[in-house]
Design goal:
The protein is of the alpha+beta class. Helices cover 35% and strands 27% of the residues. The longest helix has 25 residues. The chain is globular, with a radius of gyration of 22 Å. It binds adenosine monophosphate.
C-alpha cells in the first residue's frame, strides 16, 4: 500500500508479477475522508469526498499524512493549508476536531487503509490481513509508528514499513540484477510535495546472503508540486479575465473552482500537446478565451522546477557526491510526466531517467514486490531497508 498525502493505491504481487488493484473510479483513491457534521460517522471516502470538499471544508479531511505522528507545534506550518480545525491531544499530538468529536490522524488514515483493504479483498476474493506500507524516507519513528497504528485500526498487520524511494527502486528491480553496488536518485514530484532521495543498493553477493537498500540522503520541500503550477496558470487566467472584464471583478468560490479545474486540465494537456485552448465562462455571456503554449507554460513553471533541482544539489552535497556518481534516476509522482521535468532531471544527473512505469503507481508496485519477497512467493533477493 502506498499511503499518500493526496492519493493512495494498493497493489498485489503474485506469480503474475506486481499489479495495481483498481477501484470503480480507477487505480488512485484520493486520501480524503468526509465526516458527518457532528464528526460521529464517515460519510464519504475517496473521489466522493474530494468532489464535495469545497462544500464541506470543515469536515472534509485531506492531507492527513502531514499530521501523522506529529506534535501540534511541529504541524503549525501546515495549518494554513488545512481546511479543518486542529487541536492538541496527549503529549501535544496533533488531532482534528470535527463537530464535537476529536479524531486522531491515525483514525483518518485507517479509513483510507480499510477502503484499500476492502478493494483488495474484492479483487482477490480472499481475506487480506497483512500488508507492506510505504512512508517517506524522512519519516521519523513516531510517524512510522503512527502509520503502523493506523493499519492496525484498519485490521491490517503491517509486515514491514518501507521507504517510498526504496519501493520505487524495487519496482524497477534496480540493483537486484546489477551484481554490484549501485547509487540511485529517486525524484518524486507530486501534487503538493517534492522529495529527492539518494539510495545505495548493495545486492547480496551469493544466495543466502542479504542485500540492502540504504537511504544516503534526502531533501525536498513539503509544499512544492503540481499545485503550484496550477496556481501560476490560475493567476495568468485571472489577469486575462480582469483585463477583459474589469479590474474590480472578484472571483466567487465557484469560479475559482472552475479556474482550478481548467488550469490543471490545460497543464496535463500540455504534457502531450504544444498548445491548449482554454475558455473561461464567467456566466451572463461573459467569456475569456486564452490559448497557452507549451513554451509559455515552461517559462511559467521553470522557477518551480529549478527549486527541485536545487534540492537535488543539496541531497548530493549531503551524500558527498556529484551528479556523475548517480547510476540510475527513477521518477515518481504525477508531475514527473511533465516533459520539462524529465529534461531538466536528465540534464542535471547526466542520465536519462527511468520512466517505463506509471509514476503514480511505482511506489505501490514496489511495496507489493517487497510483500512477495517477505511472503516467500518471490525469489528476488531479500533486502533490508536501512533507516
Ligand atoms: P501525485 O501527488 O503523485 O498523485 O501527483 C499529482 C500531480 O500530478 C497533480 O498536480 C497532477 O496535476 C499532476 N499530473 C498528473 N498527470 C500529469 C500530466 N500528464 N502532466 C502534468 N502534470 C500531471
Amino acid at each position: 500500500i502506498d499511503l499518500g498525502t493526496t492519493n493512495s493505491l494498493v497493489a498485489v504481487c503474485d506469480d503474475r508479477g506486481p499489479r495495481i488493484l483498481s477501484g470503480d473510479a480507477g487505480p488512485m483513491l484520493p486520501s480524503v475522508v468526509r465526516y458527518s457534521a457532528d464528526g460521529a460517522t464517515v460519510e464519504a471516502v475517496g473521489d466522493a469526498a474530494r468532489a464535495s470538499a469545497a462544500m464541506h471544508p470543515e469536515r472534509t479531511v485531506a492531507s492527513v499524512k502531514r499530521l501523522m505522528g506529529r506534535a501540534l507545534r511541529d504541524a503549525e506550518a501546515d495549518r494554513k493549508y488545512l481546511s479543518y480545525e486542529l487541536v492538541s491531544g496527549e503529549h501535544d499530538t496533533a488531532r482534528l476536531k470535527v463537530g464535537a468529536r476529536i479524531i486522531t490522524p491515525q483514525e483518518v488514515s485507517a479509513v483510507v487503509l480499510r477502503t484499500l483493504k476492502d478493494r483488495a479483498e474484492q479483487a482477490l476474493g480472499v481475506p487480506v490481513r497483512r500488508a507492506v506500507v510505504t512512508v517517506p524516507a524522512y519519516f521519523d519513528d513516531a510517524q512510522r509508528q503512527a502509520t503502523r497504528d493506523a493499519a492496525r485500526l484498519a485490521g491490517l498487520d503491517v509486515l514491514r514499513i518501507i521507504n517510498e524511494p526504496t519501493a520505487a527502486a524495487l519496482a524497477y528491480g534496480v540493483g537486484l540484477r546489477a551484481g554490484k553496488p549501485q547509487t540511485i536518485a529517486v525524484y518524486d514530484l507530486g501534487g503538493g510535495t517534492f522529495d529527492v532521495s539518494i539510495l545505495r543498493v548493495t545486492p547480496a553477493e551469493k544466495a543466502g546472503e542479504t542485500g540492502y537498500f540504504e537511504v544516503v540522503a534526502t531533501a525536498g520541500d513539503t509544499h512544492l508540486g503540481g499545485d503550484d503550477i496550477d496556481q501560476a496558470i490560475i493567476a495568468l487566467l485571472m489577469d486575462e479575465v480582469r483585463a477583459k472584464h474589469g479590474l474590480a471583478l472578484t472571483f466567487s468560490g465557484r469560479v475559482l473552482q472552475t479556474l482550478r479545474d481548467l488550469a490543471e486540465r490545460a497543464k496535463v494537456r500540455l504534457s502531450a500537446e504544444d498548445a491548449a485552448a482554454i475558455r473561461v465562462d464567467l456566466g451572463e455571456g461573459r467569456t475569456v478565451d486564452r490559448t497557452i503554449t507549451r513554451a509559455e507554460l515552461e517559462a511559467l513553471m521553470s522557477p518551480w522546477i529549478e527549486r527541485t533541482i536545487d534540492r537535488c544539489r543539496q541531497a548530493l552535497r549531503d551524500a558527498k557526491m556529484a551528479p556523475g556518481d548517480i547510476d540510475t534516476v527513477a521518477l515518481v509522482g504525477g508531475s514527473t510526466r511533465i516533459p520539462l521535468v524529465r529534461r531538466r532531471v536528465g540534464e542535471f544527473f547526466g542520465a536519462a531517467p527511468y520512466t517505463a512505469l506509471d509514476p503514480d503507481q511505482v511506489v505501490a508496485l514496489g511495496a507489493s514486490v517487497q510483500g512477495a519477497v517477505l511472503a516467500g512467493t518471490s525469489r528476488a533477493a531479500l533486502l533490508f531497508d536501512v533507516i
